[in-house]
Amino acid sequence: MKRTILLYSLALAALLFLLQWLQFGYIVRDLSLEFYLGVVAVVFTAVGIWAGLKLTKPKTKVVLQSNFIFNEEEYNRLGISKRELEVLGLMAQGLSNQEIADKLFVSLNTIKTHSANLFIKLDAKRRTQAVQKAKELGLIG
Amino acid sequence: MKRTILLYSLALAALLFLLQWLQFGYIVRDLSLEFYLGVVAVVFTAVGIWAGLKLTKPKTKVVLQSNFIFNEEEYNRLGISKRELEVLGLMAQGLSNQEIADKLFVSLNTIKTHSANLFIKLDAKRRTQAVQKAKELGLIG
DNA sequence: TAGACAATCATCCTTTTGGGTGAGGCTAAA
DNA sequence: TTTAGCCTCACCCAAAAGGATGATTGTCTA
Question: Rounded CA gap, B54 and B64, in Å?
Fold first, then answer.
């Protein structure tokens, strides 16, 4: 960054010097002032563009990992049912069994059964582990 | 984009016209040519920088989902300690409090305290929710 | 040096989770 | 039509997690 600023400063100084030289030189003595100014304008516009691009840090646009691809093979291989996957998803969102039961309009016991089956199929001992494994396997986003 | 080009063209035309006007006007008749040229250079440099930034498509540096960027701002804002973050990470891996305690060579009660503090700081009611929020905030991978 | 804070551990109590088992209803396939 | 699988629900018991509170130690820092 500092080097870029230095370079830009040097370039600007050189151009100003060049202007000075041209002004009293013999090369463009017969050219019209309008043309002269036009050249200056164009050159400095170019310098400005270059400087602007150099000086600004590249915008880092963080693309979130929203590109989740459902792993249907694993889903079928593990024999997980639709309802179980649904429970798994809500589980991953941090809901309790009771909250999941309320959301799906079923009893708490039903959710407990689903989760128990999930733990067996995912070979997990806890819901956090089940969620972690399910994310690794691409079953949930 | 097209509108930007049009705007830039108009601005350039306006500036050239201004130059023309200044050149034969009475305002800067007594100013030195060097000063005049300097102003032109500076103005067009600025225009160039602006145009350069506007015209170039924002450099989108796509960060793949695999590399996790730790969000230090959120980490500091929430006042989470090192040890708490450590516990949070192990929690996200699906470990139980007892397993975390064993891995960190501390007592189960210590882990419970850490997790309780985490839940307060993350505004979570359950460990699964804490993990989910922490992932959203970029505290864990 | 006093105060703030992180890390550690404890106790008591409640809630949630998980394991095991059984069972009825419903649907799709053999 | 019988079987298999899914969804549903229940009960009991044990383990884990969570809430509240207090306390000690060590390390910075104002």
Answer: 26
For residue A96, what are the domain limits? Answer: 72-136
Q: CB–CB of B77/A77 below 8 Å?
A: no
The answer to whether the beta carbon of residue B126 comes closer than 7 angstroms to any atom of strand C is: yes
Contact A65, B63 (CB under 8 A): no
Chain B: nearest CA to A81, how far in angstroms? 22
Answer whether residue B66 is part of any domain: no
Number of independent structural domains in chain A = 2
pLDDT tens digits for A38-82?
666 666 677 666 665 555 544 444 444 467 899 999 999 999 999
Question: How far is Cα B109 from Cα B97, in angstroms, rounded to an integer?
Answer: 9
A37 and A93 fall within a common domain: no
| Residue whose tokens read 């989740």 | A68
Contacts of B114 (CB under 8 A, 6+ apart): B83, B84, B87
Tell me: the pLDDT tens digits for A99-119? 999 999 999 999 999 999 999
Within 8 A of B44 by CB-CB distance, chain A residues are: 40-42, 44-45, 48
What does the CA dihedral B96, B98, B100, B106 come to, rounded to 10 degrees?
Answer: 160
